[in-house]
## 1
Amino acid sequence: MPHLTLRCNVRITARTIRGKPAFIRALMDDAFARCPEREAIVYEDWRLTYGDLERYIHQTAHYLRHLGVRKGSRVAILSRNCPEWIIAEFALYQLGAIVVKINWRLTPPEQARMLARNQVSVAFLKAEKPEWGAELERLCADSVRLIRLELAFLLVV
């Protein structure tokens, strides 16, 4: 399995973070301002600087806002760990949306039930098998806007 690294030179303790997205956003904003040229993400042969990461996060947040995602909106991510996951999650934090993480190993009918149960309106998807993505799109066609979570999605957003 490919290794994914998010580089950050700040000491984080359980006491300082307490699961607060606002703290994570402040931490990232500080990294964006202090060292935009430094590598933030290393994944296989793909490398992103903090400046690139910030740009992709803002573009993704803008796209999500265009889709109607606002503070309190429930947005799911169904994927293995990947750079796009990080970008999507930080964009959602920026908007104040609720991130709903759904196990990518579940079958499409199980994923569709989880999306419905959590009242998700938008979901990022990186299907394990192409036919699973198509099946989930069919199952959720009327209720959830699915966004394919691929490296190419960064070019579209």
## 2
Amino acid sequence: MARRKKGVPPKKNGRPEHIPNDLDRSRVIIGRGADMGLEDIAALVGVSIPTLYKHYRKEIETGKALCDMKCSVSLMRQIEKGDAALIKYYMNNRMKWSEKAAVDITSKGEKIEIMTLTMDSQKEIENIGVDEDEIPAPEAL
């Protein structure tokens, strides 16, 4: 076996060490913001899930919140410019505002009682004892 020269580091087996870069950090942040799974994000970056955690833990943990914040800031800027559609969107989704109006279709303000017909109640109605001769045929109605 050949001896290694002094001062030369030993060769490592396997893949070279992953070096994080800004593009991959952005991919992780956007992927988390879009609720992508870690397997998919790791595949886009070209690393394993443990390597993803090793180099991008901060981006994994804060990516969704960061994307939400950027969207909120952009939304607020457009609302401040007077974008009516976004104002309506914001009011509907954040302020629980609705254009629906409650309409009372009863007379004199009396409430209508709504009953749900179940299979059991249908059988009870059938067993009341009404003669079939007394029930009008559908054509007669």
